[in-house]
Specification:
Ycf3, repeat, single chain, 3 domains, TPR repeat, elongated, Serine Threonine Protein Phosphatase 5, Tetratricopeptide repeat, Tetratricopeptide repeat protein, mainly alpha, 0% strand
Length: 315
């Protein structure tokens, strides 16, 4: 199942605003504010200002704008979809679902309403209803790459890997420049044990988006499965460089270093994992093994004990 963070990433797919984007958004915010001052009944301007606020990460302000737009124009389906996106970002998932239902009631052809509701339903484990909504999104816009990308991700999360591959193939066919589709298909190839195919997909993702940290990390995993540990470590190095706040490439690099007999370096990587994920049981266990090999017996015992404590607390 997708995490809440992944779901919100689909609802609000943006890489963050650079200085230029921030400046443009502030200008747009001022323009829409002027528009609603001049025309207080201008529902679309409130909706658009809400979109700018959402893009700036100001979700409470965005919801207030969408509230006003819907008050002025209760059948404005796009405002319900947009308010649902902002509420999802605020983790108000039930309210978001209600808004998406309203959007569909007022406009049964709104593909984003079906797409986003399908993703939220999958988040709540309502898999059959989720697939039904995503199928409807595909029916409404069969040439829209993102509907296949989202449906494929939901299929993959429920181990319907062949159907997921078919959806990612379709997404890539519609948009050969989609680094996300290549990365997602690579993940599914790994689940199927097709590691060479996964490496090729991650390579395409990186070619299209050279700063794609997750694709470097994921390619490292596939390379490690193939026993190509040196190449895997190089990919983890790049993932760490691009996204130093992420624990995952440190963890994977630690595993690879341990397999290569580089126990001191493995311990250093597990240190970084635990710094970022203090309750990571596997990081403590793996660090304990590496420390034991290095003769640091008391430290190893302490790590094993800590792993047991965490495991007991999670029951």
């Amino acid at each position: 199942m997708m995490t809440s963070r992944q779901a919100r990433a689909y609802f609000l797919p943006r890489e963050g605003l650079g200085e230029a984007g921030m400046s443009e958004s502030r200008e747009a915010l001022a323009a829409y504010s002027q528009a609603v001052r001049l025309r207080p009944d201008y529902a679309e301007a409130y909706n658009n200002r809400g979109n700018v606020n959402s893009n700036l990460g100001q979700f409470e302000e965005a919801v207030a704008d969408y509230d006003r737009a819907i008050h002025l124009k209760p059948d404005l389906a796009d405002a319900y979809v947009n308010r649902a996106n902002a509420k999802a970002a605020l983790r108000q998932f039930q309210d978001a679902l209600a808004d998406l239902g309203s959007a569909i009631r007022f406009n049964s052809g709104n593909v984003l309403a079906f797409l986003n509701r399908g993703l939220l339903l999958a988040e709540f484990g309502q898999y059959e209803d989720a697939v039904s909504d995503l199928n409807e999104a595909v029916h409404l816009e069969p040439e829209y790459e993102r509907v296949y990308l989202v449906r494929g991700s939901v299929m993959a999360a429920h181990s319907r890997n062949q159907e997921a591959i078919a959806d990612f193939d379709r997404a890539i066919g519609l948009n050969p420049g989609s680094s996300e589709a290549y990365n997602s298909r690579g993940l599914t190839h790994v689940e199927l044990g097709r590691y060479e195919a996964a490496v090729a997909d991650y390579a395409n993702a990186i070619r299209l988006r050279p700063e794609y940290a997750a694709a470097y990390n994921n390619r490292g995993v596939a390379l490690a499965k193939l026993g190509r540990l040196g190449a895997a470590v190089s990919d983890y190095d790049e993932a760490v460089r691009l996204q130093p706040e992420s624990a995952e490439p440190y963890y994977n690099r630690g595993n690879a270093k341990e397999r290569r007999g580089e126990y001191e370096e493995a311990v250093a990587d597990y240190d970084q994992v635990i710094l970022r994920r203090p309750n990571d049981i596997e990081a403590y266990r793996n660090r304990a093994v590496a420390k034991a090999v290095l003769g640091r017996t008391e430290e190893a015992r302490s790590d094993f004990d800590r792993a047991l404590e965490i495991a007991a607390g999670s029951r």
